[in-house]
Structures are given as structure tokens and as C-alpha cells.
Amino acid sequence: MDLPRPRRVADADALKALAHPLRVSLLNHLLAVGPRTASECAEAVGSTASNCSWHLRQLAKSGFVERADAGDGRERPWRATSVGYDVGAFADDPEVRTRQDALLALALNEDDRLVRRFLDRQRELPREWLDASALHGYTLAVTAEELKDLLGRIDDVLRPYLVPVRQDVPEGALPTHVGIRAFPR
Questions:
Q1: Which residues have C-beta within 8 Å of that of residue 175, sequence separation ≥ 6?
Q2: Do 11 and 88 form a contact (C-beta atoms < 8 A)?
Q3: Tens digits of residue pLDDT in 75-105
Q4: CA angle (79 as vertex; 118, 10 as ends), nearest 5
């Protein structure tokens, strides 16, 4: 099965569109839970509906989000246009590399925010979710080629479960954050 891949964000303009913490939070929220209105996004990311609406329009200009059809004719929700995004290989162009670094810093902040929120709310979770959750760190001895292959295989395992991709979501499933960081120590 050929599943959709994340959008490769490699040009300075697209990277600039994501160079705002609220935009990263909004896009990640839509990727995690599917189409939502600006008001629903505001509640989830801790901002105002008007502020979220403005930033969603900025994301739309760069093709990261679009309006979704609303069945009831009320406020139309926004949806992500891809199943995720990645910055690809680190660019040689200094302007692009600076923007990549900024986006990666925002992504790490978002990742850390999600971990802190999990730790703050862990007492509210059912035991089955606590037992299934993990915060692991590994140190591997691999070549650059082996690491690239390993990350590709991990991606192949995870891709069918991505919220925008999975059609057969079982009852009791929750949006679940999985973050992977791999780099030489």
C-alpha cells in the first residue's frame, strides 16, 4: 500500500510561513485531530479565535491548510493539506538553513510542550494508557546509512496509523504523540 508522505518543506518562503510558534501549534493540532474551526483551534492551542483565524489564513497562503466543507453550513473548519511536514536534509543555502533551524527549534518546543502536558495530566489518564505510554531514550552504534534505513523503516511502521491516513480507527483510539529524534551524540 502506497501511503501519502509528509510535505517536504525546503524553500525559504514555505519555511517562513511556519516560523511562528502558533502556526506550528495550529498545524500540528489539525494534523492530530482533523478539521477544526478557528474557535476550536483557539481552545486547544491557548489563543483567541481571531488570532487563530489570522494565522490559519497565513498557513493557507502557503498551502499548509485549507477550508474544509461544513455539513451544517455554519463556520467552515480548517484542515491540513498533507499528512505532515518535514524539513528534509539540511540545506546548503544559508537563508534556507536558518529557517530550517528556526522551524526545528519550534518543533522541539512543541514536542516538549506535549511531553509536559502529558506529565501534568498523567493522573487523569486510565491505567491502560499509562501502561502503554513511554518516554525512551536509546544510544545506538550505527553508520549514517544504517540510521537513514532504520528511520525509514520506523516511518513505514508508523505511517498507516497517522490520523489523516487511518480509515479504520478502532473505538477507544486517541490521537497519540510519537516523537523521534536521531542525531550523532
A1: 32, 33, 163
A2: no
A3: 789 999 999 998 878 889 998 999 999 999 9
A4: 85
Please compute, for residue 83, the number of CA atoms within 13 A of its CA located in the half-sphere on the CB side.
14
Residue 55 confidence (pLDDT) above 90: yes
Q: Does an H or E element contain 66, and which? A: strand 65-67
Neighbours of 55 (CB within 10 A): 24
Ordered by start, the domain boundaries in the chain are 7-135
* CA dist., res. 170 & res. 130, Å (int): 19
**4 and 165 Cβ atoms separated by less than 8 Å:** yes
- pTM score: 0.83
Does the 7-135 domain belong in CATH 3.30.470.30?
A: no
**Hey, what's the cell of 41?**
483551534
Nearest to 41 by CA among 14, 17, 75: 75
